[in-house]
Amino acid sequence: MRNNKVWPICLAALLTASSVLPAYGAVGPGQAEKPIPEGITAEQWNGLNDNTIEFEELSNLVRYYNPDLQNLVNSINANVENLEYVYGELTGIEMKDNIKNLEDQAKALKPTGVTDENGIPMYQILEGTVKGIKSNTEKMQRTIKKLKQPNSAINSGITEASRKYEYYADQIMIGYNSAVANQALLQKATELSNSAYEAQQLGLTIGTATQTDVLSAKKELLSAQSSLLSLNHTVDGLRRSLGLMTGYSADASPEIGGLPELDMQQITAIDLEADTAKAIGNNYELIKTRRTNSNKTTVGIAQKQADVSEGEQNVAVTMQSFYQNLKQAKTAYEAALTSFEKAGLDKGKAERSFQMGMLSKITYLQTQMGYLQTEGAKESAYSELYQAYTTYQWAVKGVIIDSGNQ
User: Shortest CA distance to 185 belongs to which of 53, 331, 382, 325?
Assistant: First the structure.
């Protein structure tokens, strides 16, 4: 009779596997030979294992190497295998013989009138036991078949988890590239600040600068050095996080590529209405709501319809918000690009004037600093545009992350 109670326990463990994710060391990119997954070419697979993280590879790196995701998949697969094992035991020759023996005992006891301590006929207890085993076996067979369907709730849950990990990897890589761009600019700014400080010290010696000028330049140099140090820590932290997200070990040092160039015309041509319809159809939270059991009651059906309708409206509102953010980010980037181009012209004029002795070194360095500031603003604006674009595209794919819960 123990087998009669095993299958619900296995099913419960299977259905809760997604909430039990112990950390373990998965094999990362390039660390060991793994068979090429279905749907991946040898060239793509080699690209994933070349110790370089490219933005276009993030989804596949997460899908095949993220340790938490691999743990989830392995846990679910193991539980499905356990369920199949139990089903095999229930439908095996030994269990069939046991069931046949119980049926024979029931037939033999029926005319005797033998009862248990509660007065229930023993043949009825045996018949109920046989019926329960057969019923549970049939349920288990249906459950296994349902779990293995491509659109099953568990497979959808794995896909949703993968998509969310991919989304976060995208965000980390965007942040990393933004930090690296600003790191290079801050390095230049620190060098210029140091030159300005030295120039002010020289000016104090020859009488063209005051002690206040020197102290001010020193303060700016210290501020630049402090900012650079802080940003260096940020870059290192983002690099480690991205490596761990894509399956690399904590001490690995994969190269990280830059962000692809956005097609501005493609952004301009975005069809919000069509994309909203796709987002509503793909949204994982809405899919769960649509699958909610209404109990086939009038109240249950009405509540489910109301929940679906509210969810669709929320997605539509969110898509509108993401679209507006994307448009604003595009406008801000174009303005920053114009300012950068103008600063480039000013920088060129200052360089020529400085070479001709028509511009002081301090003024020249200030022009250089102004150029770096506009370059930094341009890089930041591009990162914000890229983030707005990817956030919009992930929403179309069904992934909308509440910024308050990130």
Answer: 382
